[in-house]
Amino acid sequence: MELKKDINAVSIDMLLIVHSEKRRAAQGTHSDLQADPGALLQRCGGFQGVGNAVRRWQKLEGNNLHGTQLTVEVHPRDAMPQFLKKFSLAKRLQGDKNGNTRPRQPGGKDAHAYPWDRSSLKSMPLDLRQFEKLDTYASQVTAKSGLDELVTDLLQEAHSDLERVRAIWIWICHHIEYDMAAAQEKDRQAFKPTDILRSQKTNCDGYAGLFERMCRIAGVQCMTVPGYSKGFGYQTGQSFSGEFDHAWNAVYLEGRWHLVDSTWGSGLVDTTTSKFTFLYNEFYFLTHPALFIEDHFPDNKNWQLLKPPQSLRQFENNMYHKSEFYNKGMLSAHPETSVIRTVNGKTTVTIESCAPTLFMFMLNGKQEHGLLSLRKNGMKLEVYPPTMGTHKLQIFAKGHSDIYSSVLEYTLKCNYVDMGVQLPAELHQPVGPSWFSEQMGITKPSHPDPLIHTSDGRCSISLGVEEGISVLASLHGDDGPITEETQRRYIFQLHREKRIELKVQLPHAGKFALKIFVKKRQEPGNYVFVFNYLLCCANTKVNWPMFPESFGNWGQDNELLEPLSGVLPANRNVPFKLKLHGIAKVLVKGQDTWPLTLNREGYWEGSCSTAGCQEVYVMVLENANHNFYSYILKYKVNAQ
User: Fold this and answer.
1) Which of 43, 132, 158, 226 is least enclosed by beta carbons within 10 angstroms?
2) How far does CA 19 lie from the centroid of its chain?
3) What digits encode the pLDDT tens for the residues 249-267?
4) CA angle 636, 578, 455 (to 5 degrees)
5) Cα–Cα–Cα angle for 286, 287, 288, nearest 5°?
């Protein structure tokens, strides 16, 4: 016989012996074994005497008597029998086809193939739209009293085991806050489901325990799984040993085990402030095991639900793709290890995605020392660390939201720096035209590659432009004469039908970022950055001046053939040739004024002297009936 104590009751396991009247008469000395259990306790002097009764029963059992095991409970008169509670739980907790209520251990039919086959983020086919009504309902249910009543309320709109699990998951993720202070404590009593319900705070043990308890009340088999995790405080490439740092759950649905983590589904902890923020994460509900293993390593390899299972060393070395990596439609990344090394001062990272996605990166917290180009289904990043040693490389993706989220993190080790590759600090991301620039109204670029080499310091770039789109370009270098006021003066923009041409002259040898901005003409607001080119010139003799300064009346379809230099020689007759539309007269004004004439090809031609002046202006008269001239171009004259 065994005693089992509870707060309000004591239960006694014993063996009930049944035999014939003849045998009972023969064993008359033991007739008290058939007495009322309560009376037995009184006669035997309380619990100590029960042990004597058990020994006598065992002796009879040795005499080939047949018996039945039973349990007797002693409890206060006003308390509900514990057996009744257990019996009702057993009825709710439906077992397998054989009637077993104890959750079975995972087996071969639970295992999923590794690596991930890209079929789904989930371990079973799901249409999340089917949960919209249930999710709304479950998230708004309030805990009025006990856990049983809460589960009963949650299951009002749930009609299958899957929906029951979903309702419980949604409620926990929207109501239970991660308690950073409690997470540091060793007293697990603080994480009992009843205490969690009262405080609505807990740690990962509490989340898992509460989820298991609620599932069992709902009649769904559920297990708590302890293990290691790549969660809060994880450092890329770290090893794991000692006590497990996390706990999650496995639920049994449709004849198979599935994995959930309600702790990570509920929100996140800010690494700088250590404060928790509710931020629902769908990824950790019935996650595909081949993805779950990236940041969850269970104590029992069977709970990986993988074939073949992964070793702890593989778990430590494998690349950690954050949940947002998959939430935002990423499929794979290369390299596949979290610690990477440069080759000749450079490393390359590529990502494959389901759909066009915007990316950005940070090296040691700055958006520098890299070339990130967008592809229709992913991106390519080339990184050139400025110093030897260990660097932190983070990659972010935008997806369908307006916020960039961290999706990958590498530890980058560099043992050689290529001093010939020094990228401009203003070289922002992305580089080169892509699906994004096409989406923003720029099409069919003459230079599809982001890198443009020029031997004489000049280049011409042609871009198709959709109707109603204005384009602005600026040139940026790390040193030299380029300032914020002159960064657009080394570019001259020409319009030809539905294309624009950007004529670029570099002030000296080096590397420059040519930034491209767009804006819809009819909409208010500023120009939006779209992409940039990297212009490279190794010719140290290059020393091009700026283009002439243009004013607001310089029309979109105007064309300047000469002079292209914004600085004119002194005491010279300088020829002018322009194509201007809708203009009645054109004058060039220095110390004197010279008119230009319109030739048969539609160009205004003429010349002017730069003698005795410091500046030269091109002026136009739009209406022949008026006498008001507008300035459209301005040149400077070299000092004598």
Assistant:
1) 132
2) 70
3) 999 999 999 999 999 999 9
4) 70
5) 115
Q: Tokens representing 28?
A: 């008359």
Provide the 3-class DSSP secondary structure of residue 4.
strand
pLDDT tier at 358, thresholds 50, 70, 90: very high
Q: Is the pLDDT of residue 25 over 60?
A: no
Where do the H-state alpha helices sit in 306-371?
312-317, 323-327
* Catalytic residue (one of 246, 258, 369, 391): 246
The one catalytic residue in 261, 414, 476, 608 is 261
Catalytic, 195? Answer no
Q: What is the pLDDT of residue 481?
A: 65
Please check whether residue 576 is in contact with residue 559, taking contact to mean a CB–CB distance below 8 angstroms.
no
Q: What is the pLDDT of residue 33?
A: 26
The first and second tokens of residue 590, run together, are 């220095």
**Token pair for 291:** 């993805």
Give the E-state strand segments of 335-426 in sequence order.
339-341, 347-353, 359-363, 370-375, 378-383, 389-397, 405-414
Does the model's pTM come out above 0.70? yes
Residue 134 DSSP symbol: H
Structure tokens at 200: 């609505």
What is each CA distance from 107 to 94, 103, 301, in whole angstroms?
A: 20, 12, 11
204 part of the active site: yes
Q: Three-state SS for 47?
A: helix
Decide if 246 is catalytic: yes
What are the respective helix, strand and coil percentages of the chain, to the nearest 5?
Answer: 25, 35, 40
Whether the CB-CB separation of 627 and 599 falls below 8 Å is answered with no
Sign of the C-alpha dihedral computed for residues 488, 494, 500 and 504 taken in this order: negative
Residue reference for tokens 């960039």 = 404
Catalytic, out of 173, 204, 215, 537: 204
